[in-house]
């Protein structure tokens, strides 16, 4: 429920922001950008003076089919850039690799997105050193030849724009041969506020071992509970059905339950079907149901608070009304009793 609300907020702000592409100069000022390392023009094409000597660059980098630089030229242009303050869009190019930004470590875009889409020749993303993103969304989509994501250094996802508590990771419509390695998924799962509901891919088929299980796990009364004790990640879903378990201690090492399922169906991408499918199960003796339950409790508590606030308002209004009524009654009484006295005194 919360996820849906924040998704709606994000989408609303996407619409708002995209329709009003504000000048970034205020943002750059706020971030204390060095004027020598700042590119103020609102989009990026090849023929501008890029401050290639800077490690921290303030710019909105927009690379599309109109960019006439080769990959070699782009690599040399960005060779020193480790930190980007501004937005990054690589959209609809014929570039074959994103390695020209391999040195990039942090991207801080405020309320914009990082988009890497429609690059039909691109085989690898190449952002191998990227470790911090501060944005609303990181979208990697419709790169129909991309088989290599390799965002293995990603550690932090922030959403400083206060409309959303999540950073949405959207990965869809990559090469038909793309698959999600377990290591990569664990990198994503470890980042608390990265929302993975829009990751559309299948896992690379890999044998299960004692800590990682690939596939759905169904636990019933016939299951071997001991074999589950060392499991840390289930790359699939977990169903506990028809047991007379009293506790879930046999899942004490379970950290993540992360089912993925590819779909190129636009409708499913747009619908909320997959929301809440991925649990970061910090189990510690609690089951996923417990986590879902907690989530439900949180919503319940939130509702209770609202109701409590509401009842305070009702009580407050009643008190005010009562005080007012009392005053009116007193005033009326006084008016009624004083007036005859007054009139009688006049008469006297
Ligand atoms: C980028 O700027 C150029 C001129 O400065 C303009 O012609 C072009 O339409 C802009 N592109 C985008 C995507 O904003
Ligand atoms: C990418 O390009 C397509 C058309 O080529 C355009 O419709 C889309 O809005 C662009 N996306 C971004 C994020 O600029
Ligand atoms: C990526 O980071 C590593 C380790 O800090 C560094 O050795 C390497 O040069 C960086 N890559 C690029 C392309 O800058
Ligand atoms: C990719 O291109 C299509 C068609 O040109 C466009 O509708 C879509 O918005 C683009 N995707 C992104 C993320 O810009
Ligand atoms: C639970 O087990 C019952 C009977 O064994 C079965 O009918 C039902 O489909 C199972 N539910 C799930 C979610 O697997």
TrEMBL record:
Key words, A-Z: Membrane, Signal, Transmembrane, Transmembrane helix
Keyword Ligase applies: no
A matching Pfam family: Recep_L_domain
Gene3D superfamilies: Receptor L-domain
Signal peptide range in chain numbering: 1-19
InterPro entries: Rcpt_L-dom (IPR000494), Rcpt_L-dom_sf (IPR036941), SPS2_domain (IPR053079)
Tagged with keyword rRNA-binding: no
Receptor L-domain domain mapped to chain residues: 54-147, 211-265
Transmembrane intervals: 310-332
Protein name: Receptor L-domain domain-containing protein
Organism: Caenorhabditis latens
């Amino acid at each position: 429920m919360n996820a849906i609300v924040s998704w709606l907020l994000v989408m609303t702000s996407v619409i708002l922001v995209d329709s009003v592409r504000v000048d970034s100069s205020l943002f750059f000022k706020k971030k204390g950008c060095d004027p020598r390392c700042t590119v103020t023009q609102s989009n990026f094409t090849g023929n501008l003076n890029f401050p290639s000597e800077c490690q921290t660059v303030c710019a909105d980098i927009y690379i599309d089919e109109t960019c006439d630089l080769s990959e070699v030229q782009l690599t040399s242009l960005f060779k020193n850039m480790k930190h980007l303050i501004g937005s990054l869009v690589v959209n609809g190019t014929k570039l074959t690799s994103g390695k020209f930004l391999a040195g990039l470590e942090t991207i801080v875009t405020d309320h914009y997105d990082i988009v890497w889409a429609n690059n039909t020749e691109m085989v690898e993303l190449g952002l191998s050193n990227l470790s911090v993103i501060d944005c609303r969304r990181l979208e990697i989509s419709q790169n129909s030849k991309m088989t290599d994501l390799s965002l293995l250094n990603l550690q932090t996802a922030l959403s400083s724009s206060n409309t959303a508590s999540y950073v949405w990771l959207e990965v869809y419509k990559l090469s038909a041969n793309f698959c999600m390695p377990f290591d990569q998924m664990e990198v994503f799962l470890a980042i608390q506020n990265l929302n993975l509901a829009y990751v559309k891919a299948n896992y690379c088929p890999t044998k299960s071992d004692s800590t990682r299980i690939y596939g759905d796990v169904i636990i019933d009364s016939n299951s071997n509970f001991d074999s589950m004790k060392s499991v840390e990640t289930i790359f699939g879903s977990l169903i506990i059905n028809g047991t007379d378990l009293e506790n879930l201690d046999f899942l004490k090492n379970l950290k993540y339950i992360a089912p993925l399922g590819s779909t190129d169906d636009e409708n499913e991408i747009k619908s909320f079907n997959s929301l809440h499918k991925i649990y970061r199960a910090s189990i510690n003796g609690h089951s996923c149901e417990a986590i879902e339950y907690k989530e439900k409790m949180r919503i319940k508590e939130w509702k209770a608070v609202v109701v409590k606030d509401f009842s305070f308002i009702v009580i407050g209004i009643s008190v005010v009304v009562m005080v007012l009524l009392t005053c009116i009654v007193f005033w009326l009484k006084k008016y009624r009793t004083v007036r005859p006295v007054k009139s009688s005194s006049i008469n006297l």
